[in-house]
Amino acid sequence: MTEPRRLAVIHTGGTIASRPSPDGRGVTPQQAPSVPGLRGVEISDFQPFTLPSPHVTPAHMLRLARLVAQVAPAHDGVIVTHGTDTLEETAFLLHLLLPATIPVVLTGSMRHMGEVSWDGPGNLLDAAQVALHPKTRGRGALVVFGGDLFDARTVTKIHTTAVDAFGGYPGPIGRIDRVGQAAHIEYFAMPEARTPYRPEHLEARVEILYAYAGWQGEGYAEACARADGLVIAALGTGNLPAELLPLIEQTEKPVVIATRTHAGPVLPVYGYPGGGATLVAAGAIPASFLNAHKARLLLLTLLSLGLDRAAVRRVFEEDAF
Ligand SMILES: NC(=O)C[C@H](N)C(=O)O
């Protein structure tokens, strides 16, 4: 007889654990779902917290990363159920903090268990089969949703209600389908080696500012005074209105320039005041291809490790994440 494979399922809340609350005030996380239809798999459930994902903080993510590292050696795969609103942030932090040798797959649902179109069971089964599959070894944290497999660095929530809620440029790195009962899993690229970051805490303060036509820097000075570092969701390839240039020139703290555009890199192309080239010359750090909220988590991790602005710049420049 073959040994059963061991799967750890870590429940954290979200719609996948939700139902309408008895008081009629709306849908809330209540009950962890179970993984359907897996034969020859021994499941251990863990429930470190049960939260809607807008309530999840970097401190919860750090706790979760430690729990995954703790349970992984005794299991063949780990899945994490999570609310979809901040799922990509938790996935990216697990990617940053855990070695790629731990197969950890995050999933959730867009419809709750009381709805006819409840998408929890399919996503759970997909996540479990992906986590346990030999081709998943060495890929670290992944997101599985609607049959698509996503890299934690590029995945993002692209729809507020659709069941295929996740995407992001350049798209999925793999796919799970079924032939009869058997899972058919393909990856479109080989895994990459990388070294995880190991912060003791995530207590640095990093805030995000969102650029818009006509922004004159309102809120910048206040955010800069409070925070250890800033991320700006800038325009296009990382450009800002001219008024921001002198503010950034005067800032000693790291200012990372991401983009509010949904795909593509931040590059020092434009030389008009506030153009990307002038911001970089003023000391700002381009976020590469990370969206603003993932750039924030990377900056938060690096500042919590005590890196200075020059060292932070190198990490972003070298895509060392
Ligand atoms: N589909 C979901 O899970 C959304 C929910 N608001 C959450 O992120 O917790």
Task: Briefly say what this structure is.
Helices cover about 25% and strands about 20% of the residues. The chain is of the alpha/beta class and about 325 residues long. It has two domains: about 5-185, Rossmann fold, CATH 3.40.50.1170; about 205-315, Rossmann fold (3-Layer(aba) Sandwich), CATH 3.40.50.
Offer a few descriptive terms.
321 residues; alpha/beta; Rossmann fold; eight-stranded mixed β-sheet; four-stranded parallel β-sheet; 16 strands; 25% helix; globular; binds asparagine; hydrolase; L-asparaginase; L-asparaginase_N_sf; AsnASE_II
Q: Strands of the largest sheet, in order across it? A: 4-1-5-6-7-8-11-12
Mean pLDDT: 97
Determine the structural class based on helices, strands and strand pairing: alpha/beta
| Helix-residue proportion | 10-25%
The fourth-level CATH homologous superfamily of the largest domain is L-asparaginase, N-terminal domain
Number of domains: 2
Give the N-to-C terminal Cα separation: 42 Å
CATH names the topology of the largest domain as Rossmann fold
Which architecture of the largest domain does the CATH hierarchy give at level 2?
Answer: 3-Layer(aba) Sandwich
- Largest pleated sheet: 8 strands, mixed
Number of strands: 16
Tell me the fraction of residues in β-strands, as a range. 15-25%
